[in-house]
Amino acid sequence: MFIIVTDIDDTEEEAREKLDLLKNEFIGRYHDDLINWSCDARIFEPFDEFVEANIFIPPKILLVGEDGVGKSTIINLFPGETILELDDDMNEIIQKLIPIPNFKRMNEAILREMDLKDLIDNSKIYRPILDSFDIICIVTNSGASNLGRTKRLYSQLEQKVKKADYYIIANFQDLTKTSYEPKKVEEIFDVRTFGFSAIHESAKEKMYSIISKMLRISITEKIKSKQT
User: Fold this and answer.
1) What is the pLDDT along the chain (228 residues), one digit of tens a residue?
2) 3-class SS of residue 84
3) CA gap 165, 62 in Å, rounded
4) Where do you find CATH 3.40.50.300 in the chain?
5) CA nearest 139: which of 70, 93, 50, 204?
6) Contact indicator for 220, 103 with CB cutoff of 8 Å
7) What's the pTM value of the predicted model, to 2 decimals?
8) What's 60-227's CATH class?
């Protein structure tokens, strides 16, 4: 008997494809061992590498915000090719698969960028996308006017999408005279907030650190909680 555990929003077709892949590979590798099995499960440990490489579905992080808040600058911090899609209204959808170091059985994450207002205005069209993401990260430029608009848009989005965990990236922290500090932004949104400056020389390392913290809270800790 072969069993695979999936999320409630994963499609049955995709789950069955992965289950068939797992079953066929396992039987192909261990057919002879199973006939005369000594009950030593350690012989199956190398199969974990195959599972991690072929069965694991990378966690998904959605970067959303208004124009000019730094979404594209953030996603361009990471190497690799960008997958560019156009929706029915010719709006760009940019996505990257980024490596995630120092995580057990989690090697990559999917990072996608979308416009916040467009996402809300067309939430019915984007419903499959919204339901597939583990984390929705609101990017704001930390200035008073943008914070006010973004807070209103976030309130609308939160009503439409309750599955994902929300975080705030308070960008443009280098503009000290006009930007609110992360702690103040967190009070305004009542959402975990990370301060950030996309033009800082260590911006890439800082963003890796932010993503790692979000994944630990929303993925790793949740998995441990379910296991206990």
Assistant:
1) 888 777 665 677 777 888 888 899 999 999 888 888 888 888 888 887 787 667 667 889 999 999 999 998 999 998 877 777 665 665 667 888 888 877 766 778 889 999 999 889 988 888 888 888 899 999 999 988 889 999 999 999 998 887 889 999 999 999 988 899 999 999 999 999 999 998 888 999 999 999 999 999 998 777 666 555
2) strand
3) 10
4) 60-227
5) 70
6) yes
7) 0.74
8) alpha beta
Pair of tokens at residue 96: 């990257």
**What whole-number distance in Å separates Cα of residue 19 and Cα of residue 124?**
31
Question: What whole-number distance in Å separates Cα of residue 58 and Cα of residue 62?
Answer: 13
Neighbour count for residue 208 (Cβ, 10 Å): 18
The Cβ of residue 157 has, within 10 Å, a number of other Cβ atoms equal to: 21
186 within 8 A of 179, measured Cβ to Cβ: no
